[in-house]
Amino acid sequence: MTVAVDVIPYERHEGDDERSMWICRFGPAEPGGWGLHRHEQHQIAWVSEGLTTAVVEGRTWVLPPTRALFVPAHAAHDVVNRPPAALHCLYVWPHACPLDWTAPTVIGVGPLLRELMLALSGPALQAVEESARTLFFGLVGAVTDPGVAVPLPDDRRARAVAQWLVSRPDDPRGLDELAPAAGTSVSTLRRAFAETGMTFTDWRTQVRLQAALPHLADGMPVAGVARRVGYASLNGFVDAFRRHFGHTPAAHFTRAPDR
User: Fold this and answer.
1) Coiled-coil region(s) at which residues (predicted)?
2) Are residues 54 and 97 in the same domain?
3) Contacts with 97 (C-beta within 8 Å, 6 or more apart), sequence order
4) Reduced to 3 states, what is the DSSP secondary structure of residue 44?
């Protein structure tokens, strides 16, 4: 069920009106999952350790430390961490932000941006706010590899199927078996998934790749990850991963971002 936008609350932080940009840090034990909410500021969510899942207006991204997500002001969102994850959320008022992005955008976090984010999370930010903001946004750029963003279908029955497959990506059933279990037809499910902008096959691939990232981050062997997320062969998983990310699963958490 879609939550009406007008019932999603705005959250305020102490000192909102006194600063143009600031960062909130959350410790490794913080799971997140505060529920859908909004801010009048833009937000950039990033973990210096671990993984986090950002949910923005019905789409989800799994983010390692080499990626952050820009969430535009007023967008309904939530952030769920995979403990232990060290989450840093930067907030900036739109009038102080040089970015003109109006949609969620994945940012590459290289060594310099990483160190700057860590430094800005400390007490020194207010003393150097203007110069820090200029340097920060000079380093920020969208990446060509956007991670994994999986939209859910609007149709109630298709959404139930989608939510099941998100929780059980290893389920091997196709639409011809899933449709009767959901009390609908194959054509209805196919059409509902197509309305997400992807075929069912492409959508399922995205879900499986998303499900693979936490296991890869935990150090599980690639062959085990492939089986865990529903691939019958290691080569099939590696090929799908390379097509989407441009590199192998083994390289995903070790390569530098392209920005």
Assistant:
1) none
2) yes
3) 42, 137
4) strand
